[in-house]
TrEMBL record:
GO cellular component: membrane
Keywords linked to the UniProt accession: Membrane, Metal-binding, Transferase, Transmembrane, Transmembrane helix, Ubl conjugation pathway, Zinc, Zinc-finger
Domain RING-type: 89-131
Membrane topology: Single-pass membrane protein
Name of this chain's protein: RING-type E3 ubiquitin transferase
Source organism, top-level taxon: Eukaryota
SMART domains associated with the record: FANCL_C, RING
Location(s) in or outside the cell: Membrane
Reaction equations catalysed: S-ubiquitinyl-[E2 ubiquitin-conjugating enzyme]-L-cysteine + [acceptor protein]-L-lysine = [E2 ubiquitin-conjugating enzyme]-L-cysteine + N(6)-ubiquitinyl-[acceptor protein]-L-lysine
SUPFAM superfamilies attached to this UniProt entry: RING/U-box
Organism: Cardamine amara subsp. amara
Amino acid sequence: MHRLLLESHNETSVDGYQRDMNFDANMVIILAALLCALILALGLNSILRCAMRSSAAVAQRTGLKKRELRKFPVAAYGSSEVEITVTECAICLSEFADGERVRVLPPCNHSFHKTCVDTWLLSHSSCPNCRHSLIELHVVGSD
């Protein structure tokens, strides 16, 4: 009888051990799947944020067309056509000389040498000083 009790106790403990092992194996698989899902979600989030950031950067880097540049006023420095309050170009840092052609950007009234700001505006669509967008002005003004 003692032997029978011992054998039944051993079988119960072996079955319990196998059940515990199956539970542990299932938990490992579930945790591994959750970890993979988390890594995949973080990776996808990073890719989407990078794509959105780069598309916004490309939109900001597009410059103005030459025909749009011609719409901005050009005046001779020192003349009474346009009041120019600054004495130097913020792009090349050289002072304006009397008679030099200076382009004034209408939304912010910042002034620059025509050649300096034209080069800038062909690759950017904002004022070099204050970064005010110049595209908005033409979209509204073209109606």
